[in-house]
Amino acid sequence: MWVGVRRYCFTLQVKPERLEEYRRRHEHVWPDMLRALRDAGWRDYRLFLRDDGLLVGTLLAEDLAAAQAAMDATEVSARWEAQMAEFFINGRHLVVLDEVFNLEHQLGEWQ
Predict the structure, then answer these.
(1) Sign of CA dihedral 103, 6, 80, 28
(2) pLDDT for 72-87, tens place per residue?
(3) What is the pLDDT of residues 23-52, one digit of tens each?
(4) Where are the beta strands (DSSP E) in the chain?
């Protein structure tokens, strides 16, 4: 684990009738979007989608707000967000979850 980096977890709600298209859109994300995420400090970014539309995302970053701001400043993110906004219930508001258990912390292996 990198010093100063923490894991973040968030949820969003995808419209149930749009699940298959949402999955398809993520099969081949634009290369410039992938590079922008990397350059903005998003590491080990993953999305998990439940059949009812619950989307759970995890990522490693030094500062989630700074990583989001860096993405918001890119043209490619504006294009991606404009196309993806229609998939979400209640917009694209991330609900960040608090970590309540970490095995490595309790075992004393976290650095």
Answers:
(1) negative
(2) 999 999 999 999 999 9
(3) 999 999 999 999 999 999 999 999 999 999
(4) 6-13, 43-49, 54-61, 95-96
Ordered by start, the domain boundaries in the chain are 6-97
Q: Which of 26, 28, 93, 105 is an active site residue?
A: 26
For residues 34 and 24, give the distance between their C-alpha atoms in angstroms, rounded to a whole number: 16
Question: Rounded to 5 degrees, what are φ and ψ at 88?
Answer: -105, 145
CATH 3.30.70.100 fits 6-97, yes or no: yes
- The answer to whether the CB of 76 falls within 8 A of the CB of 32 is yes
For 5, 24, 84, 90, the CA distances from 53, given in Å and listed in that order, are 29, 14, 14, 13
Does 93 qualify as catalytic in the annotation? no
